[in-house]
């Protein structure tokens, strides 16, 4: 079976910054393979295009430019927020909440969770970077397809991989 919409794919992969010898950013190996339903819109479209049609036992390697991955770093995603939104009920900031380089989760105006990195703060303003952590990076993917199978009825209903013996609700 080949990778196509709604196929369940089990694969290994590595993601490196810039090329095959770049810094390792993420690895899913045979002991902890990545399992997912293809074609549900949860993965990068350009990434899915590169593995579409592959079969069990096939390897892959390719680069994704920032525009095909997580976009370019945008100054529009650097935000300033009043420090008061980080106060607890005693109008204090919890120790460790605001540390440079730390990611915190915010809620946007639509109620969606957004991760942002703390850049700096003073007694009035907190500066946050809501660019994706991999924005601006050219990503090199390499790996192998371990298995491709048809999705079960439950997986098709949920539009996601369900671990064998997984609980139905």
Rg result: 20 Å
Elements, N to C (H/E): EEEHEEEEEEH
Number of helices: 2
% residues in beta strands: 35-45%
For the record, the CATH class of the largest domain is Alpha Beta
Shape: elongated
Major β-sheet profile = 5 strands, antiparallel
Briefly note the CATH topology name of the largest domain.
Chitinase A, domain 3
Q: What percentage of residues falls in helices of 4 or more residues?
A: under 10%
Domain PPIase FKBP-type: 4-96
Catalytic activity: [protein]-peptidylproline (omega=180) = [protein]-peptidylproline (omega=0)
Organism: Neolewinella aquimaris
GO cellular component, one term: cytoplasm
Walk me through what this model shows.
- The longest helix is centred in the N-terminal third of the chain and has 7 residues, at 45-51.
- The chain folds into 2 domains: 7-70 and 134-158, Roll (Chitinase A, domain 3); 75-129, Thrombin, subunit H.
- With 169 residues, it is mainly β.
- The radius of gyration is 20 Å and the shape is elongated.
- Strands 1, 2, 3, 4 and 9 form a 5-stranded antiparallel beta sheet that branches.
- The chain is built from 2 helices and 9 strands.
- The mean pLDDT is 94.
- The relative contact order is 0.27.
Topology:
Elements: E1 7-17, E2 24-28, E3 34-37, H1 45-51, E4 59-64, E5 78-82, E6 103-107, E7 113-121, E8 125-129, E9 139-150, H2 153-158
Antiparallel strand pairs: 1-2, 1-3, 1-9, 4-9, 5-8, 6-7, 7-8
């Amino acid at each position: 079976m080949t990778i196509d919409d709604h196929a369940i794919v089990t694969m290994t992969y590595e993601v490196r910054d810039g090329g095959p010898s770049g810094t390792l950013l993420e690895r899913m190996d045979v002991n902890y393979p990545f399992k997912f339903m293809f074609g549900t819109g949860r993965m990068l479209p350009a990434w899915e295009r590169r593995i579409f049609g592959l079969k069990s036992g096939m390897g892959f390697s390719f680069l994704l430019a920032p525009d095909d991955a997580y976009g370019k770093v945008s100054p529009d995603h650097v935000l300033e927020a009043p420090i008061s939104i980080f106060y607890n009920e005693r109008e204090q900031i919890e120790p460790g909440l605001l540390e440079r380089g730390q990611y915190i989760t915010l809620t946007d105006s639509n109620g969606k969770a957004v991760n942002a990195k703390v850049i700096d703060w003073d007694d009035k303003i907190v500066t946050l970077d809501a660019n994706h952590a991999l924005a601006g990076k050219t990503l090199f993917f390499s790996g192998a397809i371990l298995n491709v199978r048809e999705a079960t009825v439950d997986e098709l209903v949920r539009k996601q991989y369900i671990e064998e013996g997984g609980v139905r609700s």
